[in-house]
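We modelled the chain as a single entity of 121 amino acids. Its sequence is:
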Amino acid sequence: QVQLEESGGGLVQVGDSLRLSCTTSGLSSSGYVMAWFRQAPGKEYEFVASIKGGATNYRDSVKGRFTISGDNAKNTVHLQMHSLKSEDTAVYFCAAKSGVHRVSPSLYNYWGQGTQVTVAS
């Protein structure tokens, strides 16, 4: 019943901007922690950002460059990315959990299929 689907990934160059979107169904995005994780080939899932209500959290390496936001009327969460770096290259996943913010991917109940972001150097 719960579905999350990411879109907006693509191939960009260093310094470019990109906006990812996560559409949700079967849950109220405003009542859950919504988060973005990413996974580069051969690496573990890495927390990027989360939002619940007016509270947001970011990993240090994206602070000042990425912004997470929600459009509750459309049940959609966005990740606006600026000043992209080659190290941002990864598959980006949308995830959701009940309760409070956490950074561990194992605590998130629902996941999308991911969208590829490639930042060419």
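As a brief sanity check on the tokenised model: The mean pLDDT is 95. The chain has no helices and eleven strands.
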